[in-house]
Amino acid sequence: MSEMNMSLLSAKDKQSLLAEAMGAVAAIGIIQTEINDAKDFTNVDMNYVHALSPYLAETCESFSSFEDAKQQLSKLTVDLSKSLNIYINSLDKTVNEGFTGLM
User: Fold this and answer.
1) Which of 7, 9, 6, 29 minimizes the C-alpha distance to 75?
2) Rounded (to 5) percent helix, strand, coil in the chain
3) Per-residue model confidence as pLDDT tens digits over 56-100
4) What does the pLDDT look like over 13-45, one tens digit per residue?
5) How far is CA 25 from CA 1, 82, 83, in A?
6) CA angle centred on 95, ends 89 and 96, rounded to 5°
7) How far apart are CA 57 and CA 65, in angstroms?
């Protein structure tokens, strides 16, 4: 999975992708629980993966194992969360400065 440039995504896109990535991490946990001997996606029915997480089904070829997928998707969720937090903080600062200027 290649690095994503967060600055190219809108806040709405980041929120949507964050939900998708978090769902994909949860889906990996479900797959590992249901299919105890599977270490990667090679022996897992893609229809099952798609039913759990369409995003994971689209990106699973990028991962070498379940652990690799969890690490990369977890990093993506952290990066998206940080980026959204920075965006929210800058909005808050702008709004507060606007109110201060009115007084």
Assistant:
1) 6
2) 80, 0, 20
3) 999 999 999 999 999 999 999 999 988 888 777 776 666 666 656
4) 989 999 999 999 999 999 999 988 888 998 899
5) 14, 18, 19
6) 90
7) 14
